[in-house]
Specification:
The protein is an alpha/beta fold. It is built from 8 helices and 5 strands; from the N terminus they run βαβααααββααβα. The protein has a single domain, classed as Rossmann fold, CATH 3.40.50.300. A 5-stranded parallel beta sheet has the order 2-3-1-4-5, with helices on both faces.
C-alpha cells in the first residue's frame, strides 16, 4: 500500500482533492483532523491532558472539548499551540498507525493521509509515509475558497496570516503540486503523481 501524506496551507484544496480521489478503486482518504477529534472525545487519550493544560473553559456545557474555543486560544498564543500539538499529535499518530494497519488488511492500494501540519509538526513519523504532496495556491485564491465555504472572514484572515510563512521542507519525498484551477484538474495532477510514485515503488520491488 502506498501511503501519501497530503499537506499544505488552509484553502489549498486538501480535503477536496482527497475526497475526489477516494472515489477511485483502492484509494482511501484518512483525515488527521478527524483522527484528532476522535482523541478529544471524553475518555480519549487527549481529553484529560487538554483539560489539565487549558482548563475547563475549553469544554462545552455537556463536557465535550470545544474545538472552536481551543482553536481560538492556540491561534493567538504560540506557546498554547505548541502545547496543544505536543498533546494531540502523538495521539493522532497512534490512531493513524491503527488506521493504516486496517487499510493494509483491506488490500487498499493508496492511502491519502490529509493533514495540514504533516510536514511541519516535529511529532510526525515520516517513516510511516512513502511520499508527501504539498498543495499550494496564491493566498488570494485560498482566501476566496475559504470564504465561499461559509467561514467567517475575520477568522479566515487570521488563519491565513498565521500560515503565511508555512513552507514545505526541501526533501526528495516531498512533491509540491499547484492547486490553482478547477478541483478536477488538481485531483488529476495529484493522481498522475501518485501513479508515477506507484510505478517507481513497483520497479524498486522488482529490482530487489
Amino acid at each position: 500500500m502506498l501511503v501519501v501524506g497530503v499537506a499544505g496551507p488552509a484553502g489549498a484544496g486538501k480535503t477536496t482533492v482527497c475526497h475526489m480521489l477516494s472515489h477511485r478503486p483502492g484509494v482511501v482518504h484518512v483525515s488527521c483532523d478527524e483522527l484528532a477529534w476522535a482523541t478529544y472525545r471524553r475518555g480519549g487519550p487527549s481529553y484529560a491532558p487538554l483539560i489539565a493544560r487549558f482548563g475547563e473553559s475549553i469544554l462545552t456545557e455537556d463536557g465535550a472539548v470545544d474545538r472552536e474555543q481551543l482553536g481560538h486560544i492556540t491561534l493567538t498564543d504560540p506557546q498554547a499551540k505548541e502545547d496543544l500539538e505536543a498533546i494531540v499529535h502523538p495521539a493522532v499518530l497512534q490512531e493513524l498507525r491503527g488506521a493504516l494497519a486496517y487499510h493494509r488488511q483491506q488490500d487498499t492500494r493508496v492511502a491519502l493521509v490529509e493533514g495540514a501540519l504533516l510536514l511541519t509538526s516535529p511529532h510526525v513519523d515520516w517513516a510511516a509515509f512513502d511520499a508527501f504532496v504539498w498543495l499550494y495556491a496564491p493566498e488570494e485564491l485560498r482566501l476566496k475558497r475559504l470564504l465561499s465555504s461559509g467561514l467567517e472572514g475575520s477568522k479566515v484572515r487570521r488563519r491565513l496570516s498565521a500560515q503565511r510563512d508555512l513552507q514545505p521542507p526541501r526533501d526528495a519525498s516531498v512533491y509540491p503540486v499547484d492547486s490553482s484551477g478547477p478541483p478536477a484538474e488538481v485531483a488529476d495532477r495529484v493522481w498522475n503523481l501518485i501513479q508515477s510514485l506507484s510505478q517507481s515503488a513497483s520497479q524498486r520491488t522488482q529490482d530487489i
